[in-house]
Amino acid sequence: MKVDAALVLYAKSERPGLSAATRSALAARAMATILAATPEAAAATSADGSWNPLMTTIGEAQRVPIRDLVSSLTRLCAVANSSQPYL
Question: pTM for the whole thing?
Fold first, then answer.
């Protein structure tokens, strides 16, 4: 899932000892990966409304820094990858 990949990239960008350029490049790749998930999230929501929270959170990435979305995206991905509707 693209959101999972974006979260991995973002986590890498937060590692200590990285140059500012590397940190910025990884964070930019994470954001691009999140935004690339928008069409898939929209299609999933059209088929099953339970995906709407994930789609909405992905949509917020256009105006909210990714660091502020990590917790929500992590939790929503855990729910999406689980058979439980709530975790």
Answer: 0.83
